[in-house]
Design brief:
- The protein is an alpha/beta fold.
- It has ten helices and 27 strands.
Length: 425
């Protein structure tokens, strides 16, 4: 079947795809807009899946990015259950998994990513996965985990990153017994400094979570198609009622690679989210973009980045280009703590603390030489916002030690901040 579909075709109905569709219509795109999603639900927020939704504090309706009526009002055609199979840049057409062909004038690839499979001895990729092995990326994933959680359930979380620790906190909130297994020497090793890792390890242990660091998973024992125990490289055997694996994400770029638009690491885009093809843009977790502050290509798994790239793409499509030069930022909610990160701490040679971790409110500033690279702010939204703005100016601090002096407001330390209200995102 071939369907004629000129106009803007957006593949992927997550944060990036939904935002791009609405921003394009609001920006003046008058032609047809078709939004393809592989799930059969209204586009929804993913961050609450590991927090409020898992805890039962938010329902499906509360997750919606926009009500269905908003897409109708904006004349955005939503196609659900549609999975991309191939891209034909020459013919300006895509083929879906069901064989349907859609043509486009402009194409937006907002295909996001998927969880990296958890593989070890005892899990045979040729057979169906264990019924109590879960990932957390989609609403269906969260529903499966939530149905299995409960008081005294033995939960094993493989991976001590943001998602793993958020799941651990939510599971403890529901009375489960939780063990986090992290192969790295500390949790959050890929995204935060040692000081912040120590703080979060302490918080989770105080909440009753067992944390095993420097301990990879060697094998699992399965009975009746379920994992009953996880065996660690340190010799420890951890019993399991359910296992949640958070071991990274793979970008959904297979069709883009086959079309010559990408490598396995992502789809390269510029500040306007344009790809190497003049008729194709891309936004979200599947993209690579050069960032001047860090002088390298970055693939950011971040809702704010997905939204900023989507808006940049829409601005270009509508002939009103507004390049995306935003500072990377992230957040994580665990227990009563909000961690807000601006910038990337990789490559820092110095970490300075502002405030007392013991009071559960502090900042960690990461520097290389005299240059500020990033901040981790725990329950400090004002400091986070002031630093995020300063990072956009790539400041070189003549007296970095002033960051630790709480008698000095950050607006007096960072140039050009005094006239601005730090706010609370």
């Amino acid at each position: 079947m071939e369907t004629q579909g000129s106009g803007l075709l957006i593949v992927g109905a997550g944060h990036a795809g939904s935002e791009l569709a609405v921003a394009a219509r609001q920006g003046g795109w008058t032609d047809r807009i078709v939004l393809l999603g592989d799930e059969r639900v209204v586009p929804y927020q993913r961050p609450p899946l590991s927090k409020a939704y898992l805890l039962g504090q938010a329902d499906v309706d509360a997750l919606a990015l926009r009500p269905a009526a908003a897409y109708q009002a904006a004349r955005i055609e939503r196609v659900q259950g549609a999975r991309l199979a191939a891209i034909d840049p020459t013919g300006r057409a895509v083929t879906l998994a069901d064989g349907a062909t859609l043509r486009y004038d402009k194409l937006a690839l907002c295909t996001g990513g998927r969880p990296r499979p958890f593989v070890c001895e005892g899990i045979d990729a040729r057979n169906p996965p264990p019924s109590n092995l879960f990932y957390l990326r989609t609403l269906a994933d969260a529903d499966g985990i939530r149905a299995s959680l409960g008081p005294d359930a033995q939960v094993v979380v493989v991976g001590g990153g943001y998602v793993g620790l958020e799941v651990a906190a939510s599971a403890r909130g529901l009375g489960a017994r939780v063990t986090v297994i992290e192969a790295q020497p500390r949790v959050l090793a890929r995204v935060a400094g040692a000081e912040v890792s120590r703080f979060y390890e302490s918080v989770h242990r105080e909440a009753g979570v067992e944390i095993l660091t420097g301990a990879g998973v060697e094998r699992v024992t399965c009975e009746g198609g379920r994992i009953v125990a996880v065996h660690c490289s340190n010799g420890q055997r951890v019993p399991a009622d359910l296992v949640v694996a958070g071991v990274g994400m793979l970008p959904n770029v297979e069709a883009a690679v086959a079309a010559g638009l990408a490598g396995e690491g992502g789809i390269p885009v510029d500040e306007l989210a344009r790809t190497a093809d003049p008729h194709i843009v891309a936004a979200g977790d599947n993209t690579l973009q050069h960032h001047p502050l860090y002088d390298r290509e970055l693939r950011l798994e971040s809702v704010p980045n997905a939204l900023e790239q989507a808006r940049a793409a829409a601005s270009w499509l509508c002939g009103k280009p507004k390049p995306n030069r935003s500072v990377p930022w992230f957040w994580s909610d665990q227990y009563d703590l909000k961690l807000q990160t601006a910038g990337l701490s990789q490559g820092h040679d110095r970490c300075l603390l502002r405030g007392d971790p013991g009071a559960r409110s502090f900042c960690a500033f990461y520097l290389r030489g005299g240059q500020l690279l990033a901040i981790d702010a725990v329950n400090r939204p004002g400091d986070f916002m002031a630093t995020r703005r300063a990072l956009a100016q790539q400041p070189v601090l003549l007296n970095p030690a002033s960051l630790t002096d709480e008698s000095l407001p950050l607006r007096e330390i960072f140039p050009g901040q005094s006239a601005q209200n730090p706010g609370n995102p």
